[in-house]
Write a structure and sequence with these properties.
Blueprint lengths: L2 E7 L4 H15 L3 E7 L9 E2 L2 H18 L5 H8 L5 E2 L2 H13 L4 H13 L8 H10 L3 H8 L3 H21 L6 E6 L2 E4 L4 H4 L1 H10 L1
Parallel strand pairs: 1-2
Antiparallel strand pairs: 1-5, 3-4, 5-6
Helix pairs in contact: 1-2, 1-10, 4-5, 4-6, 4-7, 4-8, 6-7
Length: 212
């Protein structure tokens, strides 16, 4: 196989966190390169206050994801993140952080995404904060990305917007309505994968990729 997997996601999407082991498994199957494309679903106009109703909805959804995938959503996350009414539900900062990684060490972007997800859903850390995100990148040894994030310039913000625009164009092209969305391409041919398999049967997702 010589294929590219376009992974459309949002760093604050619980279902994307649930799909993380399956996405890693696809890469381990060999012959697949990965292009991460944040959609901006929960940033900009998609950001919203974290009120009681939304927090309750999110926790209910998170518990369903945990039952399906085994991915952990901790009480620290529930108390510190969902319980904090001062926070916004805004993936903009984390999206910019990942773009900084894509510009400096692109091969480590998936690792950075998984670290951001773990920091939020397991450690209960505030990944809406640029300072927290920069510290997280430095802890991973991604110092150049952390420096870019600490002082966002036109290059970083422009690259971030371009990635989101490309993701949104692919979603329109394939009629995708949410994230995660997985699109596999080989040469000029591209097709949408059934990402539901990422939760219940990751092996089925690998079979789809191999057959594409």
């Amino acid at each position: 196989m010589d294929k590219t997997l376009h992974y459309l996601f949002d760093p604050l999407c619980g279902w994307c966190y649930g799909a993380a082991p399956a996405v890693s498994g696809l890469l381990e199957s060999g012959g697949v390169s990965l292009e991460l494309l944040p959609t901006g679903l929960f940033s900009g106009e998609g950001a919203r206050p974290l009120d009681d109703a939304f927090a309750a909805y999110a926790w209910s959804n998170d518990q369903r994801i945990e039952r399906l995938t085994g991915q952990r959503f901790s009480e620290k996350y529930r108390d510190r993140i969902l319980g904090d009414r001062r926070q916004l539900f805004d993936s903009g900062p984390a999206t910019v952080a990942l773009t900084a990684v894509s510009l400096t060490e692109p091969a480590r972007e998936l690792e950075a995404l998984e670290a951001i997800q773990h920091a939020r859903y397991v450690d209960g850390n505030d990944v809406i904060s640029l300072a927290t995100l920069a510290d997280l990148l430095r802890a991973l040894g991604l110092d150049d990305a952390a420096a870019k994030l600490s002082h966002p310039d036109a290059e970083l913000l422009g690259a971030n917007q371009a990635r989101m625009s490309r993701a949104q164009a692919l979603m329109r092209e394939f009629g995708a309505r949410g994230v995660p969305t997985l699109i596999v391409g080989s040469g000029a041919k591209r097709q949408l994968l059934d990402h539901a398999a990422a939760y219940s049967n990751p092996r089925a997702l690998i079979s789809q990729l191999e057959a594409a």
